[in-house]
Amino acid sequence: MISLYSGEFLGLSVKELMIPSERVAHVQVGNSLEHALLVLTKSGYTAIPVLDSRYRLMGLISTPIIMDSILGLERIEFEQLDTKKVESAMNTEIPRINVQSNLQSSLNLLVDNPFLCIEDQSGIFEGILTRRSVLLRLSNEVKRNYRK
Ligand code: AMP
């Protein structure tokens, strides 16, 4: 078995496990909610990062957030999709991890979040750490150690 205390696994850098920014579907603050819904639907992801024009991480947008923001008193006001901007609806209260951090400091956050956004010291978006990639790595480590 791998020893979780050896530092081998928990000491892994998040950089090593992250999906880099160029492979992450995202939208920009000034995009319309219609565009965001299109990206979410086409990619099949539940939530995606929102960036500004300088590639800084501003928040997350998801299909439930979009639907909630166009919910009228008696109907869903689809016509608002075109006029409302992502920045008016996005969730800005999101956990952020630094690209220099290790897995140990992120594990707790992954319990409640399917993925975490990674940024550098100046808030520039670097990529995401998904629960899947962490579990995949753990699973591979466990298999490797059983074979020894
Ligand atoms: P997964 O663990 O691969 O199922 O991903 C969990 C969540 O992470 C997805 O539902 C998305 O919200 C987000 N995610 C994973 N991969 C990407 C990606 N390439 N681009 C944008 N979001 C992603």
Automatic annotation (TrEMBL):
InterPro entries: CBS_CbpB, CBS_dom, CBS_dom_sf
Keywords for the protein's UniProt record, in alphabetical order: CBS domain
Signal sequence range: none
Keyword Calcium applies: no
Domain CBS: from-to ranges: 18-78
Pfam families: CBS
Coiled coil: none
Top-level taxon of the source organism: Bacteria
Stored NCBIfam families: CBS_CbpB (NF041630)
Protein name: CBS domain-containing protein YkuL
Organism of this sequence: Mesobacillus subterraneus
Taxonomic classification: Bacteria, Bacillati, Bacillota, Bacilli, Bacillales
